[in-house]
Amino acid sequence: MFRRSLPRFKSLTNLATLKVHGPDGKGIVAACCNLLDRKGYEIVGSEHWTDRIENLIFLRIAFDKEPQIASSGGLLDRCQNAVETADATEQALQQLCRDRDLAFQLNWRQERAKVAIMVSKYDHCLWELLLRHEADELDCDIVGILSNHDNLRPVAETFGIPYHLFPITKQNKREQERHEIQLLKDVLQANVVVLARYMQIFTQHFLQAFPNSIINIHHSFLPAFQGSRPHHAAFERGVKLIGATAHYATADLDEGPIIEQDVISVTHRDGVDGLIQKGRILERNVLARALQAHLDDRVIVYNNKCVVFGD
Amino acid sequence: MFRRSLPRFKSLTNLATLKVHGPDGKGIVAACCNLLDRKGYEIVGSEHWTDRIENLIFLRIAFDKEPQIASSGGLLDRCQNAVETADATEQALQQLCRDRDLAFQLNWRQERAKVAIMVSKYDHCLWELLLRHEADELDCDIVGILSNHDNLRPVAETFGIPYHLFPITKQNKREQERHEIQLLKDVLQANVVVLARYMQIFTQHFLQAFPNSIINIHHSFLPAFQGSRPHHAAFERGVKLIGATAHYATADLDEGPIIEQDVISVTHRDGVDGLIQKGRILERNVLARALQAHLDDRVIVYNNKCVVFGD
Amino acid sequence: MFRRSLPRFKSLTNLATLKVHGPDGKGIVAACCNLLDRKGYEIVGSEHWTDRIENLIFLRIAFDKEPQIASSGGLLDRCQNAVETADATEQALQQLCRDRDLAFQLNWRQERAKVAIMVSKYDHCLWELLLRHEADELDCDIVGILSNHDNLRPVAETFGIPYHLFPITKQNKREQERHEIQLLKDVLQANVVVLARYMQIFTQHFLQAFPNSIINIHHSFLPAFQGSRPHHAAFERGVKLIGATAHYATADLDEGPIIEQDVISVTHRDGVDGLIQKGRILERNVLARALQAHLDDRVIVYNNKCVVFGD
Amino acid sequence: MFRRSLPRFKSLTNLATLKVHGPDGKGIVAACCNLLDRKGYEIVGSEHWTDRIENLIFLRIAFDKEPQIASSGGLLDRCQNAVETADATEQALQQLCRDRDLAFQLNWRQERAKVAIMVSKYDHCLWELLLRHEADELDCDIVGILSNHDNLRPVAETFGIPYHLFPITKQNKREQERHEIQLLKDVLQANVVVLARYMQIFTQHFLQAFPNSIINIHHSFLPAFQGSRPHHAAFERGVKLIGATAHYATADLDEGPIIEQDVISVTHRDGVDGLIQKGRILERNVLARALQAHLDDRVIVYNNKCVVFGD
């Protein structure tokens, strides 16, 4: 089993994030900053954008999760204080947002996000995610790999990650999905499900179990070439660029909110095989960047679109 | 009227080009090279590609158009020789290609290509083409600008290029097209028609008059967002890149062979206006690059696709 | 003279911007937001970043410059109120920032920035800026063009912009610079000077007259190929990409703070002429983007670097 | 040990390549095509470029390595014929090129290229190469991994590739290099040595043992930021893009002929760690693309530059 021996990047887990969005109104940014400020949190970065057509506000604040409170007490006291301050902050935010009809998400990063990866037979996205994770580029734990095939088990074993096989047939799909949901929710406690070229189409039941938490990679520049075999269609059409699109999976196949897209040049010399090969490089990078944005809490979904704040 | 006063780039017009394509067969490249060689032409560049699935060959040869013939005569003799050699070459090529069922195009560049530009109200593509032309980046003469509106006449006048107004209504479209074809063919003797954001849809009649010679710019990454208002559709979909596509205009709107495509990043901050603004930069560059490839004789069309050889 | 007849983009001039930077400290973002809020200004966007190594804060807030004040008075009263509120805001900010040792810039956009362009013989950057300006992509007035040569006067006349000739020799350089400064400061009242491939090297005297206000375009990917003839050097080295760099001009030639950079692919087929031609496309786009960022008040300079906030 | 179980891409090994370069002259392309043609080889692609300033020709021909010879014999006869034809072709080419002072390389691809990889502690380039190899994107055998550290042995073991440890000190460098050369030449019979972030500087002795066969990746956009710690220097300078450069290693450190370069955007938010992380993605892709071009026989070196033909 491979275990990277280089010194790890300094963990960023001292940073908590607050995301707020909803109807715009007077003083929202100031109110949120004030609130964190008064509780003793040091704000280290923020970005906010107003959709002036829809009159909606989108706000993201990153702050040091350790409140700077004068304390004569020992470590225990300080921990106790920190917990109490966090609770009080959450309550105050609830009230602030309720009054203004705003949604908020507060991520204390007490523990790292738990990511489950679902794959079929293609391995390129899986390797990319596991290697970026191993290099500390993804701030999460990878808690399990689920597949409808057994062939990528050795990849999982390379990194010591549990591999769960759920063969899918027309007959057993709903039942297998139930098992998968149970595993993901109850056992792995996954917050994020990444479809790393998972080739099965989910039922609504599965999708609704993880709203805005399933990240899929589609091997085309959506909305061009929806559905299966986009590289064949791209070859037929004679395009000069091919793309890849990472999006949240929703009930409408290939129509979920787009997080990240990229393209690569192709020429007449590239047959379908060539497009597939060039596409692999795209897919793994686009998927990894989308997951990174999600894990950094830089994404807010609304109206089937994503606001993605800068890294 | 603006006239650029910088020293011009060395003309490339000493180079002629031969393009050949059709069923692959034994010794085609050698035969073509031999033929030019024996006639005294110095080959300075060539590229050939075989579509091994369709079993088709695509060949482009650039050669010095002055044959290197031992000649004791004066200038007149040499000119006479050159003309005779060119004729003989053309005949020999005709025979070579007829035997093998190949198509060929021989461009002696005795005179520069004659390009006509058609525009409506948007000026960005027109400026780009005229400025690149003025900077000697486009190896052609721009023989006229046709428009269904009068508002870009001052741009034409800036460069001293004739501007022809053809207002289009539902009633007069066919008749106006006839006049346009007459102007383009008989008066301007245009080889290439560039639709620089020309907003009228042509009848078959017009399109068939200029096969593989009308270059259109569509303001999306085709086949995504065909038809009108692609930036509005892109905004609605929440894409993270927008594109532009230059293609030969055919009877199927937005479905002609693609010459060149490119994309640019957009974010949630870009409204429709922002997409349109970013799109302008794309459109003018993609269109100019496509025209350049066409004028360099680097494009071969087949099966509704373009083979575009390297520059 | 060319005058664009399309409907103009909606002016953005209802937005004022506040930029703040300096030593980080508790509650700066909240304090600034509160201050604007209390004065009745609607904040429509903000971004802030903390350099945690140097312990510096960088903040940019965009807000509606019309305060929303309950007012029973007429238009005159409201104007009077607006002016008084702006003054009061400025004073309050002065105090807030003085106490914390912060620098701030408040741009009310009462009038558009005044941009002067300096050129020599190359026209591509000049055209790009004038055309983007004409298309309302640059939120400024272009108040004059200065050159050491007369050949681009027709470009200026195309857009009706005054053209000022200052021929430079070794002997008259200092004196001509004095005249240029006088023209720029006293007559044109320029806030920004754009060197659109201006080929003269300034004395310190000139540079110090416009701190962080002179934007230069260098035709290489700095710090590679500093100095003159970078394309020749790039050709010699056999690089596979060439670049362009827009930066604020400082006393150290080609070493000022970088605002924007980009590159374009080149191949063995590109001779020096080819690099120059491809470079032109780069230079004009990089320079225009840098000017746009500057005009949007998205740039803060420190430690010879630029913080460039998102557009 | 990981072993990919997907169906492999169709091997390209039925294609042989001929590269020719040297002083330009009449009829070289025709002569080479004729020669291959007469021996019964089907040419499936070719590209040729003339450096008209230096008057040099560069030619690459890809052809089916099985000659199409009328043969009534069995398999053995045909094999015998093929070998004899290849020998005769080689001799004829020798004579053709000797007469014209041309250099040629004929790659029959009887066996795949043998690639050895040298690494130190960073693993990202190593993984990329091994995974692309495993996915059949690199047409070679990876015959061994050499390192001055032991920590990447598990990566090698994941793919079942021998790992050879050569710890380097000031004292033992020359001796270790001798051992490495012996291993590479005599045991592994490597044709190509890839320095996948190998952090030792070689002596001339080592470099001369593998002319134009050692591919190095430098983590900057050369010639910017030569030498060590380029990301630190890039951070200090405040660049807006960082680069990576793959080149053949020569006696002049970081000055060898450049095969491939690419860049990625960075912002003020990227500290040195951020640059290093973004750089990793660049480095592994640039190195892999350079190796691919080398293995495809698409590179010809001259005058410390690389002609890289299209893929």
Would you identify the CATH architecture of the largest domain in chain A? Answer: 3-Layer(aba) Sandwich
Q: What structural class results from the helix and strand content of chain A?
A: alpha/beta
Spans where pLDDT lies below 50 across 5 or more residues of chain A: 5-12
How would you characterize the largest beta sheet of chain A? 7 strands, mixed
Beta strand % of chain A? 25-35%
What is the spatial order of strands in the main beta sheet of chain A?
Answer: 7-6-5-8-9-10-11
Oligomer: homotetramer
Q: What is the assigned CATH homologous superfamily of the largest domain in chain A?
A: Formyl transferase, N-terminal domain
For the termini of chain A, the CA-CA separation is 32 Å
How many structural domains does the protein architecture of chain A include?
A: 2
User: Roughly what is the average pLDDT of chain A, rounded to an integer?
Assistant: 92
Which features would summarize this protein structure in a list?
homotetramer; 311 residues; alpha/beta; Alpha-Beta Plaits; Rossmann fold; 2 domains; seven-stranded mixed β-sheet; 8 helices; 13 strands; 27% strand; Formyl_transf_N (chains A, B, C, D); Formyl_transf_N_sf (chains A, B, C, D); Formyltetrahydrofolate deformylase (chains A, B, C, D)
Describe this structure in words.
Chains A, B, C, D: It comes from Seminavis robusta. Chains A, B, C, D: Keywords: Hydrolase, One-carbon metabolism. Chains A, B, C, D: This is Formyltetrahydrofolate deformylase. The structure is a homotetramer of 311-residue chains. By secondary structure, the first copy, chain A, is of the alpha/beta class. Chain A contains eight helices and 13 strands. Chain A has helices at residues 28-38, 75-100, 124-134, 153-158, 173-187, 204-209, 230-237, 272-295, and strands spanning 15-23, 43-51, 56-64, 103-107, 113-119, 140-147, 163-165, 192-195, 214-218, 241-248, 258-265, 299-302, 305-308. A seven-stranded mixed sheet of chain A has the order 7-6-5-8-9-10-11. In chain A, helix 1 (28-38) runs antiparallel to helix 2 (75-100), helix 3 runs parallel beside helix 8 (272-295) and helix 7 packs across helix 8. Residues 5-12 of chain A have low confidence and may be disordered. Chain A binds chain B through residues 49, 51, 53, 58, 221-225, 237-241, 243, 257-263, 267-269, 271, 303-308, and chain B through 49, 51, 53, 58, 221-225, 237-241, 243, 257-263, 267-269, 271, 303-308. Strand 2 of chain A pairs antiparallel with strand 2 of chain C, so a sheet runs across the interface.
